[in-house]
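During the reporting period the student researcher (J.K.) took over the structure-prediction task from the postdoctoral fellow and processed the backlog of single-chain submissions. One of the processed entries is reproduced below for the supervisory committee.
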Amino acid sequence: MTHSHGNWRTIVLFSATAAALSALPSVALSEDFQTLKLQYEHGLAEKRSEALAKMAAHKTPEALAFLKDAALKTGEEKEVRLAAVTALGAFGGKEAFDGVMRAMGDRDEAVRKKARSIVLASKNDAVFETLKDFIGVARNDTILSYEILSAMAEFPTEKTPPIFESLSADNDNIRYAVARVLPSLGASETTKRLTESFLKDELGEIRAEAARAAATMKLYPLVDRILPLLSDKSPVASAAAATSLEQLANPVAMVYWLDAFKSPKPKIRSFAAATVCRMGKPEALPHVFSLLDDKAAEVRETADASISSVFRAHDHVFFMINELGSKNILKRKTALRLLASSGDSSVVPALFSAMRYERDAAIISAYTRSVSALARADNLTDIRSALGSHAKHVRIAAAASLAAVSGEKYPEAFAIFLNRVKEETDAEAIKEMLNAFAAMKPVPYRLAYAWTSGRWPNDVKISACEFLGIHGETEAITPLIMAAENPSHEVSWRARDAIEKLVVKPSDAAALSEHLETRNKSVRLFILGMMKKYPSKAAVDNFGKINYGKTDTETRYAMVEAIRALRPDGGHPVLADALRDGSAEVRWLAAKTVSETAGDNASGFLMTSLSDSSPAVREEALKSLARAPRFEYASRIRPYLNDPDVSVKRAAIAAIEHITDDESLKIIQGLLLDQDATLRASAAGIVGKAKMTSAVETLKKMAESDYYPECRRAAARALAGMKITDDKTVAIFFALVKDADSSVRTEAAAILDAITDKSHRPHIIKSLYDENRHARAYALSAIARLNLYEANAELFNLAKIMRRDNRAQNREILSTLGRLIDEGDVPELVVLYEMNNPDLKLWAIEHAARLKSEAAADLSARALREENPAFRQKALESLTGAKHARIRSAIKYIADNDPDPMLRRLATEKLK
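J.K. obtained the following structure tokens:
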């Protein structure tokens, strides 16, 4: 019985492979199997594939074994394995079919696909049974087990689901393969039951495949089984669960997702809330809203964000209004936020009503913003009612909404405000109302005038001042001045701050000056300060409002400051009074202002100030005279050259400098001995210009020994201006060249440059040996400037004793000497050449090359034969010609024999 059954299955299997066999090209059986075997073993992949295809015609056990081995050999090329599987299919028979089924586990998809197509070429019961029997062979191979079960799932038979169910307790490979294949069976009670069991499997990969299968088959009842996998310890399972749940997020499954809200795990509740919200079903809102009471912050935050981003507020107005009374603060916030986004002005009365019982400051602010955003002109009646509320924050919110609708209904909105504001007494409410009115069109800033004075509390006055500073105009200055006179320092300060914001140009300052008659001193000084900041003639003309003789010193000083800032042409009448003021500070500032503003009339104004008891006033008066010197003023100025105050004497000498007469010069000459250095310097300058020879000795003594540099400098300049050039004076100038002060040295050098000539050679030569470096430097520059060839001997002597550590001075000496050297200096050049100093030797070579004498040529020839290449190079570079026989011979020797190629090239160039 069994034998006959086996024969039946074998026959069926042969017929199953007949199609594959007929597809192969006819092969001559005369082609020897051994030849094909050799072709397979030694040929390339293409030839080996051909050999395997031809072997299918040899119906021998040896050929079958060879084909199975080639099909299943893992190290074989893909093309060869593919050819072997095709040949097995053509071979036919149970053993060949067994090889094809095993090839379904190949690592390459193309081979598996080919083997699968051969197996499924005939979908009959025999093939199905063979695949079923083969499961035991495939049990330990993940790929093969999946391919076998996947092939079985393609058979239209009712046997498959029960078989799969029986395999659900098999090993890991089989269970994994069943889980993967389940979607191809379609949704049924069996597949649902299997999927549910696999969701609890101990292997994470199987749980993941089960989740994917549930999503593919749309098994919505399994949502609550997949949700726990979000927290699965296997990353593969948790990721697959998240993806599958996204696919199952369908309103059809709403009931299952709502059940997930009861999960003990916050992560599941949070995920479910976000998913339900994305579905957008209006009836789900109450359920999601309940999660705002959740104990887990994660769930509350997800629900809050999801509600706001998905649900449309106008679909849930009544629900949201009802939630405004919730005890849960998050629910109230969310409901208010949704209502505010609805754009529905009909909810404004409800918002005002609910707002009365709100105590949370943040939500109250949100209410205020919401009613302002939602209110429209048709809400005026609601706003009027809210303005009469006992709750202060409701009245504030109503004021904000009233300001918002004022653009549409300005007259009506403004009338409502006027009726209400007469009754408002709360300081904070008034302050907030003022801020709200800033949005009115136009801004009713004039209403703030009433709040700057009167019965209002100080904080109301402060708010009004701040409001006017931002939104007011120049006419607001009057009520602000009243506030600035308030006894409260805070109110006064805020009022002044507001005025500073309003006064931004001279015309504003002129308007402010109308209040100069105020009795409040600090306010008056503030006004004068603003007039100084923004000078205006109209403002200064209002000084008539101040009784100058009866006002305080600070005010009078500030008035003069304002005039000085304005700088009116010809001065100002107030200055005449200020010059006679009882305060020395006021008189000083007045004198300074007159001198700067009164022009040619300043001298007449200030003549009386010359006799002022204050030295500062006398100084300013003298400075004014110095700006417009006149000879008739000399007699008035002269006495102040002996003023007890040094500053006055300085101003006097500056004023008389250009209008001196003999009598004044005598006094000024006496100031050459004054204790003040500035006076001595100024006096020296004046007597120098006046060429007072009687002062020469004093000037010499000052130039020689005065402690202050400015005095020594001024005395030297005066002597030079008087052309005093005797030996003693010249010696003084040479002494000043080495003064400790650089400005004195510069002055002395400039004087000497203007007067020295060769007759001063002794002084210059002597300075060459001076210990002071400035004296030596000047001597060298004078020698170069005057071309003193007579100094060459001294310069050569200095060169011979030069110290190598003083290179800067050495360069100055050699540079000067280089400019003056001539043919007679060759013996000295030879001396320097022969010294043990490379720098001097190079310098001597360079300058000898420029001379034309026989002795110079000898020195250059010696240099050209030096062992040191640096000396030879210097000689070659310095020579301007090569006509002398000895020099030419030396150069030719270098060109022919020098070891340095560069010197040879240079010498060759010199010979041309």
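The committee noted the following: Residues 1-30 have pLDDT under 50 and may be disordered.
J.K. will present the remaining backlog at the next meeting.
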